[in-house]
């Protein structure tokens, strides 16, 4: 029995799907299946029931699940203890972040972190805020950068630290005529233009949909369901406009940004912690560098970005 086998077992148990579990643990599906088969052979029991494509825990799997969880938690605490003793020369850090933050704040943060602590193995999970909070609560992440959509309320055992506030702006292709000649665009004006909108799991989609609904307006959708990079590329090609965070477009000359008014849309970027787990030195140093990155961001040229006080 190995820790890798137990990690594969827990991933299948959580997802109920071998393909999704393989993606979660960064393995090809045949490799994950071999790990599960080896574990079942070692234990002499079938761990999953596979009736009609539904994968559920067998009685043996249900007995193993809490034990495997504790064993991996113990292994992670052992790594943390050794990392603290070695003074950040080795170790592992698991950071979660939303897609929009990965292409802005996180890129700069990881560049600085890796330069300062090259021996620390960095694992980045990119997902929506709700999924990241769930992963953090389950102990699958050490810390996460999320968007606060609940006024500081989050899952039990977690704490949110507000970092900065950011305006959402409307972007369109720079080679097309501007959406307005004014410094800002009203939501009722935006409703007349074709829109490229995000997948429904995106925090940005939720915020934009809520704003239109509150104003009694409907979006004119040209393309729906894209990830962040795809949305920005579609806008650059002139397919439609999109509502995005201001920091995601600062270095993209193919986009023209204009501020929104009536209403102004903002989001709050937070660092999420486990309140019941003592942070490692690796995590503490990441948060120290994050303070520097946020300081540079809010003191720079990004329009509509203010530091949280």
Write the layout of secondary structure elements.
Elements lengths: L2 H13 L2 H7 L4 H15 L4 E4 L2 E4 L1 H27 L5 E7 L1 H4 L2 H12 L3 E7 L2 H9 L5 E5 L10 E16 L10 E3 H4 L3 E5 L4 H12 L5 E7 L1 H9 L5 E4 L9 E7 L4 E9 L6 H19 L5 E3 L2
Parallel strand pairs: 3-4, 3-5, 7-11, 8-9
Antiparallel strand pairs: 1-2, 5-12, 6-10, 6-11, 6-12, 6-13
Spell out the key features of this protein:
single chain, alpha/beta, Arc Repressor Mutant, subunit A, D-Maltodextrin-Binding Protein, domain 2, 3 domains, nine-stranded mixed sheet, two-stranded antiparallel ribbon, 11 helices, globular
Provide structural commentary:
This protein folds into 3 domains: 3-65, Arc Repressor Mutant, subunit A (Orthogonal Bundle); 83-164 and 268-307, Periplasmic binding protein-like II (D-Maltodextrin-Binding Protein, domain 2, 3-Layer(aba) Sandwich); 166-267, D-Maltodextrin-Binding Protein, domain 2. Helices cover 42% and strands 26% of the residues. It has helices at 3-15, 18-24, 29-43, 59-85, 99-102, 105-116, 129-137, 187-190, 203-214, 228-236, 281-299, and strands at residues 48-51, 54-57, 91-97, 120-126, 143-147, 158-173, 184-186, 194-198, 220-226, 242-245, 255-261, 266-274, 305-307. Strands 3, 4, 5, 6, 7, 10, 11, 12 and 13 form a 9-stranded mixed sheet that branches. It has a two-stranded antiparallel ribbon with strand order 1-2. Strand 8 (194-198), helix 9 and strand 9 form a beta-alpha-beta unit. The relative contact order is 0.14.
């Amino acid at each position: 029995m190995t820790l890798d086998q137990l990690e594969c077992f827990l991933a299948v148990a959580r997802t109920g799907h071998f393909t999704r579990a393989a993606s979660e643990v960064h393995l090809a599906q045949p490799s994950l299946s071999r790990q599960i088969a080896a574990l079942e052979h070692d234990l002499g029991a079938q761990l999953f029931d596979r009736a009609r494509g539904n994968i559920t825990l067998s009685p043996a799997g249900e007995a193993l699940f809490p034990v495997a969880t504790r064993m991996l938690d113990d292994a992670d605490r052992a790594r943390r203890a050794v990392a603290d003793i070695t003074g950040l020369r080795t170790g592992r850090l698991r950071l979660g972040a939303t897609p929009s933050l990965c292409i802005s704040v996180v890129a700069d943060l990881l560049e600085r972190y890796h330069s300062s602590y090259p021996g620390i193995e960095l694992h980045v999970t990119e997902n929506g805020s709700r999924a990241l909070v769930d992963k953090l609560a389950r102990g699958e992440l050490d810390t996460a950068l999320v968007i606060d959509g609940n006024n500081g309320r989050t899952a039990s055992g977690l704490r949110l630290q507000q970092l900065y506030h950011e305006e959402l702006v409307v972007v369109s292709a720079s080679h097309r005529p501007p959406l307005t000649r004014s410094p800002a665009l009203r939501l009722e004006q935006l409703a007349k233009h074709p829109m490229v909108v995000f997948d429904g799991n995106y925090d940005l989609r939720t915020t934009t949909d809520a704003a239109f609904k509150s104003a009694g307006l409907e979006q004119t959708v040209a393309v729906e369901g894209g990830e962040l990079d795809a949305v920005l590329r579609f806008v650059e090609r002139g397919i439609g406009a999109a509502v995005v965070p201001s920091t995601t477009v600062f270095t993209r000359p193919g986009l023209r940004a204009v501020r929104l008014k009536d209403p102004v849309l903002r989001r709050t970027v937070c660092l999420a912690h486990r309140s019941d787990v003592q942070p490692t030195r690796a995590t503490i140093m990441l948060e120290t560098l994050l303070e520097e990155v946020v300081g540079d961001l809010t003191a720079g040229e990004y329009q509509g970005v203010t530091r949280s006080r």
